[in-house]
Amino acid sequence: MKLAFIPTLVLISTFAAAAEVQPVELHHELALPAGSDDKVVALTLDACGGGFDADLAGFLIEHRIQATIFATRRWIRRNPDAVAILKAHADLFDIEDHGANHVPAIIGSDRQVYGLAGVADLKQLRREVSGGADAVKAATGIAPHWYRGATGEYDPDALKAIEAMGYKVAGFSVNADSGATLSQKQIIARLRKVRSGDIIIAHLNRPASDTGKGLAQALPLLVDQGFRFVTLRDSQVTPSGGR
Question: Which pTM value belongs to this model?
Answer without folding.
Answer: 0.91
